[in-house]
Design a protein that fits this description.
The structure holds two protein chains of two kinds. Chain A is mostly beta strands. Chain A contains no helices and eleven strands. Chain A has strands at residues 4-7, 10-13, 19-25, 31-38, 42-51, 54-57, 65-66, 76-78, 87-94, 105-106, 110-114. In chain A, strand 5 and strand 6 (54-57) form a beta hairpin. Chain B is an all-beta fold. Chain B is 0% helix and 53% strand. In chain B, the strands form two sheets. In chain B, strands 2, 4, 5, 9, 10 and 11 form a six-stranded mixed beta sheet that branches. A five-stranded antiparallel beta sheet of chain B has the order 1-3-8-7-6, with no helix packed on it. In chain B, a hairpin with a 4-residue loop joins strand 7 and strand 8 (71-76). The chains are: A mainly beta, B mainly beta. Chain A binds chain B through residues 31, 33, 35, 40-45, 48, 50, 56, 58-59, 90, 97-98, 100-101, 103-104, 106-109, and chain B through 1, 8, 31-32, 34, 36, 41-46, 49, 51, 88, 90, 92, 96, 98-105.
Chain lengths: 115, 112
């Protein structure tokens, strides 16, 4: 089954404790992206990657890191989480956004709480 | 900052009525427009895409695009309680950037 898999689904942590949210897709997609979703602010892009070893900042990259060492994986790293990073996070992938009709496939989301 | 604007709602319609959801965008060069549906606690899923001015119909859904007015809309005919969700408008950025900008979404409630 074609899918984007995110783990964990829920995560509670404390300020300053490094964490990683994993994202993997099995569709051989070139494009992958991370979003956070907050009430009243909608989906905001954190980082995206157009291919292996190619990443770029989105609208809200502060406090986050990503890597794309393999085409299928795109982990989101919070080196020192803070309470303002409490949010619902989504990983998404697409074959390529340069094609006008390419849609995003979303993972099931990770609800992160930073205490 | 390129923007996509939606009324947050909630938009309440009776079962069987037509629901009309609207979206405006700021990037005049955008070429691709999408409507995603998001049920509470779930991830967004694509329901419609549109690239040319005019209407595009898919079952009970019709997307409408007016590039001159920078306006996209989604009509849902014969609304059902299962249509109750948040609808996100999304726009691909122009200029070759690999970026999709989302609106904040409109919450639709279909009353049985």
């Amino acid at each position: 089954e074609a899918q984007v898999t995110q783990n964990p689904r829920y995560l509670i942590t404390v300020t300053g404790k490094k964490l990683t949210v994993t994202c993997s897709q099995n569709m051989n997609h070139e494009y992958m992206s991370w979003y956070r979703q907050d009430p009243g602010l909608g989906l905001r892009q954190i980082y995206y990657s157009m291919n292996v070893e190619v990443t770029d900042k989105g609208d809200v990259p502060e406090g986050y890191k990503v890597s794309r060492k393999e085409k299928r994986n795109f982990p989101l790293i919070l080196e020192s989480p803070s309470p303002n990073q409490t949010s619902l996070y989504f990983c998404a992938s697409s074959l390529s956004l340069t094609a006008t009709n390419e849609k995003l496939f979303f993972g099931s989301g990770t609800q992160l709480s930073v205490l | 900052q390129k923007e996509v604007e939606q009324n947050s709602g909630p938009l309440s319609v009776p079962e069987g009525a037509i629901a009309s959801l609207n979206c405006t965008y700021s990037d005049r060069g955008s070429q691709s427009f999408f409507w995603y549906r998001q049920y509470s606690g779930k991830s967004p899923e694509l329901i419609m895409s549109i690239y040319s001015n005019g209407d595009k119909e898919d079952g009970r859904f019709t997307a409408q695009l007016n590039k001159a007015s920078q306006y996209v809309s989604l009509l849902i005919r014969d609304s059902q309680p299962s249509d109750s969700a948040t609808y996100l408008c999304a726009v691909n950025d122009s200029g070759g950037y690999q970026k999709v900008t989302f609106g904040t979404g409109t919450k639709l409630q279909v009353i049985p």
